[in-house]
Amino acid sequence: QVQLVESGGGLVQAGGSLRLSCAASGSIFSINVMGWYRQAPGKQRELVAAIISGGGTNYADSVKGRFSISRDNAKNTVYLQMNSLKPEDTAVYYCKLRTYVTYWGHGTQVTVSS
After folding, report:
1. Mind listing the pLDDT tens digit for each residue in 58-99?
2. In the chain, at which residue ranges do the beta strands (DSSP E only) sit?
3. How many other CB atoms sit within 10 Å of the CB of residue 32?
4. Which end of the chain has the smaller Cβ count within 10 Å, N or C?
C-alpha cells in the first residue's frame, strides 16, 4: 500500500512563507508524477503545481513566480515552497502521486491572514 503523509501547513501572515512536504511510502513505480492541489471552502480542488520524476514542472498561473515545487526521488518526497503568500492561498493542500494508480494524502491546512 502507498501512503502519502503531508506536513508543513499552518497559519502565516500575508507576505510570509511556508514549505510543505509530502513523503510517499510503499511500493512506488519509479516513473511518476507528484503534485500539490488545493481546495478552498466552497470551491473545487485545483492543481497548484506538479513535478514528474524526470524533473519537469507545471504551475497554476495564480502561483507562478511565488511557489516552487521540487522533489527528492531517493526519499520519494515532494516539496512546495510557498513565498509571498496571499489570503486567497488559504486552502487545504493535498499531495497527489500518480503512477498507474492515483493516490492522495489527507491534506494539510494553510491559512494566510491579511
Report:
1. 999 999 999 999 999 999 999 999 999 999 999 999 999 999
2. 3-7, 10-13, 18-25, 33-39, 46-52, 57-59, 67-72, 77-82, 91-98, 102-104, 108-113
3. 20
4. N
C-alpha cell at 103: 493516490
d(CA 35, CA 39): 14
**3 state DSSP class of 87:** helix
Q: How far apart are CA 34 and CA 95, in angstroms?
A: 7
Torsion of CA 52, 78, 64, 39, to 10 degrees: 110
CB 79 within 8 A of CB 57: no
- The three grid cell numbers given for residue 14, joined into one nine-digit string: 500575508
